[in-house]
Amino acid sequence: MGMKASPSSAHGRPGSLRRIVGAVGVAGVVATALMTAAPADAAASTLAAAAQQSGRYFGTAIAAGRLGDQTYTTIANREFDMITAENEMKIDATEPNRGQFNFSAGDRVYNWAVQNGKRVRGHTLAWHSQQPGWMQALSGSSLRQAMINHINGVMGHYRGKIYAWDVVNEAYADGNSGGRRDSNLQRTGNDWIEVAFRTARAADPSAKLCYNDYNIDNWNWAKTQGVYNMVRDFKQRGVPIDCVGLQSHFNSNSPYNSNYRTTIQSFAALGVDVQITELDIQGGSATTYANVVNDCLAVPRCTGITVWGVRDSDSWLGAGASPLLFDGNGNKKAAYNSVLNALNNAGPSPTPTTSPTQNPGAGQIRGVASGRCVDVPNATTTDGTQLQLWDCHSNSNQQWSSTSAQEIRVYGNRCLDAAGTGNGAKVQIYSCWGGDNQKWRLNPDGSIVGVQSGLCLDAAGTGNGAQLQLYSCWGGNNQKWTWNRA
Ligand code: XIL
């Protein structure tokens, strides 16, 4: 039983290198692709590659207005694999007039990221700052409704395409109160934050939903405790929240403290991911940068780090603050080397809470290069149907579960199945029967490797309808996958 269609030449593809060059357009990637024989313990030479060794990302904020600057884009493309729009997805940018959405600048950042094989964090949907004038003038139930409409409008536009959204930004007060910040949103009622999160979950079930704030890095500060108590309460009551973003703008008034690791561990222990979302360190201490990175690496659920800009001259703090990893000429600073070394010293270690091997469950399998999900075309159950990429959604034809028998199942009884063992063999659904062509290794680097073939699950493109096949593993983002558990 179970002998299926032989490897179909109709689905054979002319090798992955051509596609990758087409998709990424950078000759250096070809060299990387050809050097798959590098020893596993070789130090990585970019921040992104170094972070990927432990299943994490390393990101930066990007300003659309700087995408014409070649020094800027060269560094950003080389070093980072997660992108946040510095201002372009904020409320004033995306809904300048009530009910009229404008995604032109946001899309420029999004498209640059995805065309270069990077993922995107969404920032931010509900915030007291950078509100358009019309929203600043609202209050009460009309402001509440405007917030809901805004979340639906922006998340709808980027549905299925965003790794994590900062749903609510900076809602807590500085100082010793541990309470909420006064704002027009807060005055609509204390439940505005949970309403924002519930709205966001429905608007895009595939995005992780984060609460993001500054001055919540020091475990002893009242503001940190206030946010911690809110997240604990949300988890207890089932309000949808997946992550906490520690902005981590460190300066003399808000310095790095060695209890930062306790803060990260404590949030993670509530059952949320922690992301360092806007890191900059006034003065750029290489030691402090290394401490921050090592604190994240010490906590499996600290899933990635984003710095708030590329070069010092790009920083919102001004170049004089010297807060980033590259100087104004684009040279690597001492802090860059200390971050890279810290990431390399972490070595390969899985992030258990996001690894389906250790925590089997139902969920989507999302391609890192595409942001799209493994999808059974037309929700068919027909054995032998080749799988494709499609915009992520929550229907059953994108809900996969890993089993202790190393299968990856859909619809309960159909398996992810390799119709052959060579490059280009199609990956399809087939009734589960226990064969090695239906067994897969889920690796910490995000690759999914066929037990029978030793080849990687590979997307032959990034668009809707791109087909899934086996291909020699080479470390590309078209062979990396993340699980979003439902
Ligand atoms: C900053 C941008 O970097 C600036 O360009 C803009 O003028 C103001 O906002 N916390 C946040 C970010 O969540 O959105 C802020 O970004 C920095 C502080």
UniProtKB/TrEMBL annotation:
InterPro entries: GH, GH10, GH10_AS, GH10_dom, Ricin_B-like_lectins, Ricin_B_lectin. It comes from the Bacteria. GO terms for molecular function: endo-1,4-beta-xylanase activity. It is an enzyme of class 3 (hydrolase). It catalyses: Endohydrolysis of (1->4)-beta-D-xylosidic linkages in xylans. One of its GO terms (biological process) is xylan catabolic process. The active site is at 278 (nucleophile). The keyword Signal applies. Residues 41-342 form the GH10 domain. Keywords: Carbohydrate metabolism, Glycosidase, Hydrolase, Polysaccharide degradation, Signal, Xylan degradation. Its EC number is 3.2.1.8. Belongs to the glycosyl hydrolase 10 (cellulase F) family. This is Beta-xylanase. It comes from Planobispora rosea.
